[in-house]
Amino acid sequence: MLTVLLSLAGASARASEEGDVRGVVQQVFQQLQSRDYGSVYDSLPSATRSRTSRNRFINALKRAQDRYALDRINIGAVRVSGNLAVADTELYGRLTQPFQAEGKIVVQQYLVREEGKWRVATGDNGTIQQFLKSNPTFARKFPIRQPRIFVKQDGKWVPFNLPGRSKS
């Protein structure tokens, strides 16, 4: 009986952690959608914030804001191991410049837990690599995958490669 209770408690804790990760990913998406870039900056890991000033980060996002509009996010599988987490996501939106198109980005959102809070490290490969190096088992299971970008053509999602990027 005790084994069953401990097993249920462990499963409940995992579900709670996965729910917390899912909530942070959703919250950051909503902050991006509403252009609350200061709050997005606050959700970054300390290593990222130490390399990029708040003003520089916010200004970079402001410069890009007229090129796209975010519509929705689908959050798929979430995996947590200690202070690391990864969430499979699909971001949907519209490109407005340099041309108009419906777009989708398939990306793994990496998060690290600092001071009891989940922080989104996606896009900061240096920080992600540092955390994965300290947790090789997690790194083997969930290696960094490059985001995949798609545009809708004739009702179908087709891969889109940015100029200068290889088609890997």
Describe the protein's architecture and organization:
The protein is of the alpha+beta class. The protein has helices spanning 2-33, 37-42, 46-51, 54-64, 125-133, 136-141, and strands at residues 68-81, 84-95, 101-114, 117-120, 148-153, 156-159. Strands 1, 2, 3, 4, 5 and 6 form a 6-stranded antiparallel beta sheet that branches. β2 (84-95) and β3 (101-114) form a beta hairpin. The model is unreliable at 2-13 (pLDDT under 50).
Put the structure in a nutshell.
With 168 residues, the protein is α+β, with helices and mostly antiparallel strands.
Largest sheet: 6 strands, antiparallel
Rg over CA atoms, rounded to whole Å, is 18 Å
Number of strand segments: 6
Q: Which bin fits the share of residues in helices? A: 40-55%
The SSE order reads HHHHEEEEHHEE
What's the N-to-C terminus distance?
51 Å
Q: What are the low-pLDDT stretches, counting only 5+ consecutive residues below 50?
A: 2-13
- What is the tally of helical segments? 6
How much of the residues is beta strand, in percent?
25-35%
Class from secondary-structure proportions = alpha+beta
Q: Average the pLDDT over all residues and give the rounded result.
A: 83
Shape: globular
Task: Give the key terms.
globular, 6 helices, alpha+beta, 6-stranded antiparallel sheet, single chain, 168 residues, 42% helix
Task: Walk me through the topology.
Elements: H1 2-33, H2 37-42, H3 46-51, H4 54-64, E1 68-81, E2 84-95, E3 101-114, E4 117-120, H5 125-133, H6 136-141, E5 148-153, E6 156-159
Antiparallel strand pairs: 1-2, 2-3, 3-4, 3-5, 5-6
